[in-house]
Amino acid sequence: MFCLSMKKLLCVLPVLPVLANATVTYTVPASAATGATALDPAPVGLSFEFFAFPSYFKNVTATKQCLQNFETLTGKWPPIRIGGTTQDRASYDPNISAIVEYTVSASTDAPTALTFGPAFMTLAETYAGTVVLGLNRGHDNITNTIAAAKIAKSSMTNLLAIELGNEPEYWSGVQPIASGTWTPATDAASQDNWDIQVGQALSTQSIIQAGNSNSGPPTWGAAELIATENETAKSYVYDYAHHNYPGGTLTSLMSHSSISSNVGIFTADIAAAIGTGKEYVLGETNSVSGGGAADVSPAFGAALWTMDYVLRTSLANIKRAYFHHGTIGACYYCWWGRFDMGAPYYGAYAAVAALAGGSYISALDDGSTNYAVYIIYDSARKPLRALLYNSDYYAAGTGTRGSQSFVLQGLTAAASVKAKRLTAAGAGSRVDQGSNPTFGGQTFANVTCAIGGTEVFESTAVVTGGATFYGCCIRGVAFVFTMSVMLMSIWI
Ligand SMILES: *[C@@H]1O[C@H](CO)[C@@H](O)[C@H](O)[C@H]1NC(C)=O
Ligand SMILES: *[C@@H]1O[C@H](CO)[C@@H](O)[C@H](O)[C@H]1NC(C)=O
Ligand SMILES: *[C@@H]1O[C@H](CO)[C@@H](O)[C@H](O)[C@H]1NC(C)=O
Ligand SMILES: *[C@@H]1O[C@H](CO)[C@@H](O)[C@H](O)[C@H]1NC(C)=O
Ligand SMILES: *[C@@H]1O[C@H](CO)[C@@H](O)[C@H](O)[C@H]1NC(C)=O
Known about the structure:
The protein has helices at residues 2-10, 53-59, 62-74, 118-125, 142-155, 184-201, 222-226, 231-235, 250-254, 256-264, 267-275, 300-315, 344-355; strands at residues 22-27, 37-38, 44-49, 80-83, 90-92, 100-101, 114-116, 131-135, 159-164, 208-213, 237-244, 279-285, 321-325, 360-363, 371-377, 383-390, 404-409, 416-419, 422-423, 438-439, 443-444, 451-452, 458-461, 467-470, 477-483, 488-491. It is an alpha/beta fold. Residues 1-20 and 472-492 have low confidence and may be disordered. It binds 2-acetamido-2-deoxy-beta-D-glucopyranose (5 copies).
């Protein structure tokens, strides 16, 4: 009876016949276990490629609203990081009035050299959230970098940290600082030296976001770097960052077990950072490196990856993940551009909605299957929401969709639950190809990023402490629920 009514409620989309009705059952704990991970109030961040940051903020209409939509959910503007390959091609010039100066032969090219002035930092200061600013180490001109760092420190009240160099493992034969031997050890010695010199020049401790490699640990990473740092170097570090682009096919990208094992790469580095009393973040990340892949990054499957990846990285005690936004008009993984929205924004939005106001997170699954269940707890350690994820792959128009039911037990405090669903026609759905995802029935407008449509909740009764959430109509399902003392509402 109950399941039938759920089917009626949720299977409203025209779908192919359902193959099987597999069920996974989980019990929601009454309160967060001791081992539950503490959440950052704004774990979903954005990274803007250094040279493109001014254009994103001054010339792309969607930027402000897309960021503000997250602030509306959490009360906090998402943290941003400004940096990338072009931070190590940039020279600071205190005498130019322009924000940034460079020439490129095509609008989709990244500049090979650029100059930025004090107005760059003034623009960054206008942002209401925190900013990590990436400065140049590759050029080996610490005088120039300290001059820029001093202006950043004096003009940006929102400055969280400064990076000294981006992805140094790729500098051999490219950057002056790496003209001799360049290994993880020489880079670490260079970082330690620069952390101390820049920190001392600013008379500020806990100011450097250190690390910033993309190649996987343990060769390049926080544990390797920390082992070289003495207490002086450590005192200037605010946090440790790594970059991550899992890549692969859309099927592997969105797979929950793949996401879990990919995040597992960082376990030892996270522990090493925590061992120093500092936070660990992904300073630059997205689906596929180099601006993304056309057949992967703009697709709904990448939105599902974004959503699950945010929850999984948060669970792993990665405090913030900064999703990279590169060259405008040449960026498959970007959440928005000048014209169209990108499907991944929907996944990011759903993740922000799931985590909003949460203090702790735990997972009820072990990360080994296609199905995920996360519980987000409030500051009193009581369950606030759940997010359910079915990562079975389905491409619209091919084969038959299966189905997956999630049964949640232990919902004793609630008489009914309310849910919001993140869905699309298939994993390959793209906004620019006319297939908009929806989250709780709503979409985001192209150009403005304004949320539109009527918010749809799916509700169901709790019968003897249990409720079934039926994933019949889609291949990627996210259910999120909010619980209050008397009523649990679930957002699917
Ligand atoms: C914004 O776009 C205009 C016209 O394309 C261009 O002249 C200007 O330099 C751009 N400004 C920024 C900050 O990118
Ligand atoms: C900036 O201008 C001052 C004089 O106003 C000059 O002394 C200085 O060398 C200039 N700096 C650069 C980097 O051009
Ligand atoms: C290094 O930076 C300083 C200060 O910005 C500048 O005067 C100098 O020319 C730079 N050196 C090189 C080799 O570019
Ligand atoms: C810490 O290491 C730096 C090099 O990274 C060195 O210059 C400094 O003397 C060391 N400080 C102490 C107190 O050992
Ligand atoms: C955004 O524009 C694309 C065309 O480029 C279109 O397919 C899509 O439906 C539009 N999205 C919305 C929400 O209007």
